[in-house]
Amino acid sequence: MSLNEIEAAIGNLTLEEFEQLRARIPRLTDSSFDAKIAADLKAGKLDNLINRALDDEKRGRVQPL
After folding, report:
1. 10, 18 in Cβ contact below 8 A?
2. Alpha helix (H) residue ranges in the chain
3. For residues 39 and 44, what is the distance between their CA atoms, to the nearest angstrom?
4. Which residue among 9, 40, 47, 59 is least packed, with the fewest CB closer than 10 Å?
5. Mean pLDDT of all residues in 11-20
6. How far apart are CA 3 and CA 17, in angstroms?
7. How far lies 34's CA from each of 30, 31, 37, 40, 48, in Å?
8. In Å, how far are 13, 21, 23, 48, 65 from 60, measured between CA atoms?
9. Mean pLDDT of the residues in the chain
10. Sorting pLDDT into bands at 50, 70 and 90, what band is 44?
11. Are 13 and 21 in contact (CB under 8 A)?
12. Mean pLDDT score, 54-63
């Protein structure tokens, strides 16, 4: 299904159906984001950032929240 088809289908929803869709969007987005982060972690794409943060902590360059 194309994005245009999805937009057209959304335009045909009742107000109640549209509100139900709006309530589901954050859940869908969150799980998609979580999957992307997990894949990036597994691929080592965040290793440099993690190591920098750990080094900063070890050297006392961080403050507790």
Report:
1. yes
2. 3-11, 15-42, 47-58
3. 9
4. 59
5. 97
6. 18
7. 6, 5, 5, 10, 19
8. 55, 46, 43, 18, 14
9. 94
10. very high
11. yes
12. 95
